[in-house]
């Protein structure tokens, strides 16, 4: 049998070896096809080295200390502060010390060819890969080319910002030291999580945001995170912009805010959104705009301005680049569906693209899941109240105090949190759920199953939560809804 790494023709060629590209390749190979994956940086991508894994490692020690201090006896056993060097060393282990040897070995064991270099589309189902030494290799795909190149941090239009060498999410995740003063521009997920992490590690953090914190989640969750960050000593400047940046001869960065105030910091972290990694992929040859998000149809085939698949439908985009859901787990979900669909098409099988079908990616629209690892955590799935109303649903909004649940009171003294379910009143099914509070991430999958399966609230009454656990919130939400519906 020929060595796949020496081949030039494959059934599928994937550009980008992050978790999305890896999952596409794996499903394609499991479906009986051959696959090559092209990567110009580290196999494993953003999540493994600069996002999901290292950032959660930065956050975890502080969360464990907070949990212990919320209990009287355990709190007495915790003395001193966090050992920053140990936190960073554990982070390094979870980032595999920025070595992709293990990931590359997995590709080899899975029968996936790895081609290192920068890939560009240079013809119909043709990808030319340029290595770091300048040599080129041309790969021909029999069935499909998949773009899974992810996204990068986007710099806001702040005067002279580039001159102060700001951090983006990568630099924050891989920081070798903790600055005494850290300014964060952006109050979304990255900004809020890194404010949580670096304040716990000893930085005085100042966060500047055009909006309220976490504008994509329910306001009550945003409010609790805002209060907790302020209580932790984070200086918040909300509904303000940074307008100018300069670094003086001592190394201090001075940020001018839109209200005229000045913020001094040792480093500045920019967390104001993402931009797709599509600038230099040869997309202009296909009538697509380099550097733009890649619109896709229900089968994740890239479409042009006319809404029709490019060419004869051989080009696909999965993960961040198609802007459906900029979350690693949803990118991997897309990848599994897409890999199976490409293999099915290659074998002459009909695709199942109906809602919740095998090759559909319905969850991106109806059951997007997210955990924000701030203190307190935020966990959400499906639609918020605002989004559900905007989508035309007639809804019931049901809230309950998480701290009033027996399991939460046992979990931590003074437990503070809230849960909300959004009910489609016409079908009496759950279409959204949000919780904020310590360790609510573990509540999320139950909600995800209920939203995805479109379980009726009448049936949910028979899903009996164990006592005393925080999951008893489900019973309390149903009781609150039942009282409300009886009254109406």
TrEMBL record:
<dbReference type="Pfam" id="PF07992">
    <property type="entry name" value="Pyr_redox_2"/>
</dbReference>
<keyword id="KW-0285">Flavoprotein</keyword>
<dbReference type="Pfam" id="PF02852">
    <property type="entry name" value="Pyr_redox_dim"/>
</dbReference>
<feature type="binding site">
    <location>
        <position position="119"/>
    </location>
    <ligand>
        <name>FAD</name>
    </ligand>
</feature>
<keyword id="KW-0547">Nucleotide-binding</keyword>
<protein>
    <submittedName>
        <fullName>Pyridine nucleotide-disulphide oxidoreductase dimerization region</fullName>
    </submittedName>
</protein>
<dbReference type="GO" id="GO:0050660">
    <property type="term" value="F:flavin adenine dinucleotide binding"/>
</dbReference>
<feature type="binding site">
    <location>
        <begin position="149"/>
        <end position="151"/>
    </location>
    <ligand>
        <name>FAD</name>
    </ligand>
</feature>
<keyword id="KW-0520">NAD</keyword>
<keyword id="KW-0274">FAD</keyword>
<feature type="binding site">
    <location>
        <position position="56"/>
    </location>
    <ligand>
        <name>FAD</name>
    </ligand>
</feature>
<dbReference type="InterPro" id="IPR036188">
    <property type="entry name" value="FAD/NAD-bd_sf"/>
</dbReference>
<feature type="binding site">
    <location>
        <position position="320"/>
    </location>
    <ligand>
        <name>FAD</name>
    </ligand>
</feature>
<comment type="similarity">
    <text>Belongs to the class-I pyridine nucleotide-disulfide oxidoreductase family.</text>
</comment>
<feature type="domain" description="Pyridine nucleotide-disulphide oxidoreductase dimerisation">
    <location>
        <begin position="370"/>
        <end position="474"/>
    </location>
</feature>
<dbReference type="InterPro" id="IPR004099">
    <property type="entry name" value="Pyr_nucl-diS_OxRdtase_dimer"/>
</dbReference>
<dbReference type="InterPro" id="IPR050151">
    <property type="entry name" value="Class-I_Pyr_Nuc-Dis_Oxidored"/>
</dbReference>
<feature type="binding site">
    <location>
        <begin position="186"/>
        <end position="193"/>
    </location>
    <ligand>
        <name>NAD(+)</name>
    </ligand>
</feature>
<feature type="disulfide bond" description="Redox-active">
    <location>
        <begin position="47"/>
        <end position="52"/>
    </location>
</feature>
<dbReference type="InterPro" id="IPR016156">
    <property type="entry name" value="FAD/NAD-linked_Rdtase_dimer_sf"/>
</dbReference>
<feature type="domain" description="FAD/NAD(P)-binding">
    <location>
        <begin position="10"/>
        <end position="331"/>
    </location>
</feature>
<dbReference type="GO" id="GO:0006103">
    <property type="term" value="P:2-oxoglutarate metabolic process"/>
</dbReference>
<dbReference type="InterPro" id="IPR001100">
    <property type="entry name" value="Pyr_nuc-diS_OxRdtase"/>
</dbReference>
<dbReference type="GO" id="GO:0004148">
    <property type="term" value="F:dihydrolipoyl dehydrogenase (NADH) activity"/>
</dbReference>
<dbReference type="InterPro" id="IPR023753">
    <property type="entry name" value="FAD/NAD-binding_dom"/>
</dbReference>
<feature type="binding site">
    <location>
        <position position="273"/>
    </location>
    <ligand>
        <name>NAD(+)</name>
    </ligand>
</feature>
């Amino acid at each position: 049998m020929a060595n796949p790494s020496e081949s030039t023709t494959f059934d599928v060629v994937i550009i980008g070896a992050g978790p999305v590209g890896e999952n596409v390749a794996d499903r394609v190979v499991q479906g009986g096809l051959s696959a090559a994956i092209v990567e110009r940086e580290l196999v494993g991508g953003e999540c493994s080295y600069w996002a999901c894994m290292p950032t959660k490692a930065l956050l975890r020690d502080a969360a464990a200390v907070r949990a212990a201090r919320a209990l009287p006896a355990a709190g007495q056993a915790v003395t001193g502060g966090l050992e920053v060097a140990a936190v960073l060393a554990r982070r390094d282990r979870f980032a595999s010390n920025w070595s992709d040897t293990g990931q590359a070995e997995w590709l080899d064991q899975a029968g996936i060819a790895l081609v290192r270099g920068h890939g560009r589309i240079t013809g119909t189902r043709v990808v030319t890969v340029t290595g770091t030494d300048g040599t080129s290799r041309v790969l021909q795909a029999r069935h499909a080319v998949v773009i899974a190149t992810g996204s990068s941090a986007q710099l806001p239009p702040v005067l002279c910002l580039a001159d102060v060498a700001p951090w983006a999410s990568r630099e924050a995740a891989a920081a070798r030291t903790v600055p005494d003063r850290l300014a964060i521009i952006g109050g979304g997920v990255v900004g809020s999580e890194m404010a949580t992490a670096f304040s716990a590690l000893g930085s005085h953090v100042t966060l500047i945001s055009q909006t309220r914190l976490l504008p994509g989640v329910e306001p009550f969750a945003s409010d609790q995170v805002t209060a907790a960050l302020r209580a932790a000593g984070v200086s918040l400047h909300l509904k303000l912009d940074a307008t100018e940046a300069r670094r003086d001869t001592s190394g201090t960065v001075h940020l001018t805010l839109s209200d005229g105030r000045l913020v001094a910091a040792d480093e500045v972290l920019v967390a104001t959104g993402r931009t797709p990694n599509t600038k230099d992929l040869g997309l202009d040859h296909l009538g697509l705009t380099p550097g733009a998000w890649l619109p896709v149809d229900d089968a994740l085939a890239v479409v042009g301005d006319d809404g029709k698949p490019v060419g004869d439908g051989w080009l696909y985009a999965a993960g961040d680049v198609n802007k459906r859901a900029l979350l690693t787990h949803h990118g991997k979900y897309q990848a599994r569906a897409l890999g199976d669909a490409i293999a099915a098409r290659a074998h002459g099988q009909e695709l199942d693209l109906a809602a919740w079908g095998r090759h559909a990616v319905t969850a991106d629209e109806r059951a997007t899941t997210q955990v924000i690892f701030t203190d307190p955590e935020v966990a959400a799935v499906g639609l918020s109240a605002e989004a559900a109303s905007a989508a035309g649903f007639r809804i019931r909004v049901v809230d309950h105090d998480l701290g009033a649940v027996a399991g939460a009171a046992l979990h931590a003294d003074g437990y503070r949190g809230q849960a909300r379910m959004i009910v489609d009143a016409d079908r009496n099914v759950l279409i959204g759920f949000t919780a904020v509070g310590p360790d609510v991430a573990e509540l999320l999958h139950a909600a995800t199953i209920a939203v995805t399966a479109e379980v009726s609230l009448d049936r949910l009454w028979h899903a009996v939560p164990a006592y005393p656990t925080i999951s008893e919130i489900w019973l309390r939400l149903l009781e609150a809804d039942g009282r409300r519906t009886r009254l109406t």
